[in-house]
Design a protein that fits this description.
The chain has helices spanning about 15-20, 25-45, 130-150, and strands spanning about 50-55, 65-70, 75-85, 90-100, 105-115, 155-160. It contains 3 helices and 6 strands, in the order ααβββββαβ. The chain has one domain (about 25-115, about 125-160). A 6-stranded antiparallel sheet has the order 5-4-3-2-1-6. It is of the alpha+beta class.
Length: about 170
């Protein structure tokens, strides 16, 4: 039986400043992981069967790239990014690796590199607060992408699965 998704609105009624300055709880983090899962399922409804690289291209907005790095019976491992042109070539930003847990309907940020907000500087053992901030950033990014109309479907596949990291074609 398919579980029906009931969206709470507004999911987080507090201001962004309050969210970033407050002390997160495990429950808040789990809610964010749940929310991120739902956004990802809206972006890629066929996630469980997807393999390889995908492009969502819309008029007037940045192209969004998705690569399915791994599929197991209960999880998917994704790479999600934009590519910005710089003098030295293409640069991914933000650049996220996300593990999807289909059985518990959760999305965990494994790594997130971005240059605008000081969320994570170098490798350190993630604390609850750091995981919260990364998940909150991902939530805002995914919500923005969904509002723009981005979607990854099998017809958006770029190439067959590869061992190399995603790069624009």
């Amino acid at each position: 039986m398919q579980r029906q998704y009931v969206r709470r609105s507004p999911h987080y009624p507090w201001s962004l400043k309050t969210l970033l300055s407050g002390k997160p709880t495990v429950g808040w983090l789990m809610d964010l992981c749940d929310e991120n899962y739902h956004y990802l399922m809206r972006l890629a409804p066929d996630m469980r069967t997807m393999q390889g690289r995908y492009l969502s291209r819309l008029d007037g907005v940045m192209d969004l790239y998705l690569e399915v790095l791994e599929q197991t019976p209960y999880t998917s491992l994704l790479h999600l990014t934009y590519y910005f042109a710089h003098e030295s070539g293409q640069s991914p930003d933000p650049d996220a690796t996300i593990r999807i847990y289909h059985d518990s309907r959760q999305a965990e940020v494994l790594s997130l590199k971005q240059h605008i907000l000081p969320l994570n500087r170098g490798f350190i053992r993630p604390t609850l607060e750091q995981k919260w901030k990364l998940s909150l950033f991902l939530s805002k990014w995914l919500a923005y992408s969904v509002r723009q109309g981005h979607c990854f479907l099998p017809r958006h596949a770029l190439t067959a699965p590869t061992q190399e990291r995603l790069a624009p074609v």
